[in-house]
Every structure is written in C-alpha cells, then in structure tokens.
Design goal:
Length: 279
C-alpha cells in the first residue's frame, strides 16, 4: 500500500499517455475477467499499447485510486493546450507562448518581496528575448522558498510586468496574490497511516524501551479489551502463535490506531507538539 502516494503513479502514467498520444497496455490483465461482458459497451482492456489519435479535441482521461483503508480519489486530466509561437519580426517584446504564466516570488520580509518583484520586472524589461514561461520555471524550481511569498499571473509579457509593478509598490491587483507561510510555531502534522503499513511485532522495541509508549498502548488495550478477542500488546510485541491475525481488518485497524496514538504520545513527550493530527 503506497499510503500518501496512492494514485501518483497512475497520474504520471496518464500525463505521459496524454503527452505522447499513446494509450499504454493494461498491465496484469492478460486474461480478462469472465464476470464482465466485454462484448457490450465501450470499455475494453488494452492487450498492447495503442495510438491515441488526434481528433481535433483535447485528449482526456480519468484516474481513480481506491485506498484499502477507504480513501477514494478521482481526477480527470486533459491534454495541455498547444503552444502558439507567433514571434513578430523585429518585435522587442515577443508574445508569451503559454497563457497565464505564473511567476513565483518569495523573500524573508515583505519589503524584500516587493523589491524582488521590482527586480524581476526589470530583468524581463532588460531581456526581451527571455521567455516568461522559462523565467517562471526557473523561479519555481531553482529558488529557495522563504516565508513571504507571492504569485504573479499574466496572459502576456505586458500583463506580467503590470502585475509585478503593482506588487512592487504595494498596489492591489487581481493578477497577483501574496501571503506568508505558516509560522514554525504551528508545529508539524502527524499522519496516521492506513492499512498496509503493519507487521507482526511492529511495536516490540518501543514497548519494551519507552515508558510513555508502553503506557499508551496499555491504555488502548484496556479500552479495546471488552470488544476484541485478541491482545493488542501481544500483537505489537510479536507474541502469540497466529501472525496471520494481521490479515483481519478488524484487528489491524485497532492495532495501527494503538501504535499511532502511542507514537504521538512519545513524540509529544519529547517536545514535538503537532499542529494537527490526520488519518
């Protein structure tokens, strides 16, 4: 179970299919299920990669991810619009190839952010040969992210420059948004993972070595006792003669919950206070 990365591979695969115009082969399905009448409807398995022809309309595909712990995600992806290159001869300001180019700016202070906007605008004015889309890529991938941040959007070079000028002098503009990142005092977020991350004896060392972890697991075991026919302590310490009990959803879910609650208590005892707990 890939937990937080569930669905990521499917999205990457689909983006590449949209880009290259090729529908990849359906993996691990060489023998289609006999429970489906494949002669009806338009759904079919691809035994081999097939060309995804250009019909004059954008290619679209849906990606579904169903987590074993109950999380469902669905995303519809559309082929990126074709870039139009319309460079006018002798033009000092060639048009932006991609609509709504974002420029990501950040600085340690609010005045420094305004100065960054002014410098970026001056650079684009001084280098008309620079593609704003390339500048946006560089700003997003090569610059460190500081606490004060802004995003400048523009459909063309002139729009980007106007929005950056507004940001530089502190004037409101619908084409840019600014804000600050969460203060470090907010704390980290603890994520309790779903089913698939368990193993027999997964809490043995911590249970035997940490008083806080052990006490929290014992509290969970006492609370679960009236409702279960197994021992959370034995499971986490790898004791007993039935490791296969972890294949039962009614066992693994409370066991993981007990482990995560105990881990959270341990981290908090060491001074790591979460800003939120999810999962």
């Amino acid at each position: 179970h890939t937990q937080a990365a569930a669905g990521a591979v499917g999205v990457i695969k689909t983006v590449m299919a949209l880009e290259h115009g090729t529908a990849p082969r359906t993996l691990h399905a060489d023998t289609p299920s006999t429970r489906v009448d494949w002669t009806k409807g338009a759904v079919r398995l691809l035994r081999s990669a097939q060309e995804w022809p250009d019909t004059g309309r954008p290619r679209r595909a849906a990606v579904s991810a169903f987590g074993i712990s109950g999380t469902n995600a669905h995303v519809v992806l559309e082929q990126a619009p074709a870039q139009s290159v319309e460079e006018s001869a002798g033009s000092a300001n060639p048009p932006v190839d991609t609509p709504d180019v974002p420029l990501l700016l950040s600085a340690r202070t609010s005045p420094a952010l305004a100065e960054q906007a002014a410098r970026t605008a001056q650079f684009l004015r001084s280098h008309p040969e620079t593609d704003p889309a390339a500048a946006g890529w560089s700003l997003a991938t090569t610059r460190a992210g500081h606490q004060h941040r802004a995003v400048v959007l523009g459909p063309d070079r002139a729009g980007l420059l106007d929005s950056q000028d507004a940001l530089a002098i502190g004037t409101a503009d619908p084409a840019h948004v600014r804000g600050t990142t969460a203060d470090s005092a907010t704390g980290p977020v603890f994520v309790f993972p779903g089913q698939g991350s368990q193993w027999w004896g997964m809490g043995r060392e911590l249970y035997d070595s940490s008083r806080v972890f052990r006490a929290t697991v014992d509290d969970c075991a006492d609370a679960l006792g009236p409702y279960v026919d197994w021992s959370p302590v034995d499971l986490l310490r790898g004791e007993g003669d039935d490791p296969d009990v972890l294949h039962r959803a009614d066992v693994v879910q409370p066991a993981l919950f007990s482990t995560m609650v105990a881990l959270a208590a341990l981290w908090r005892s060491l001074g790591v206070e979460p800003g939120a707990v999810v999962g």
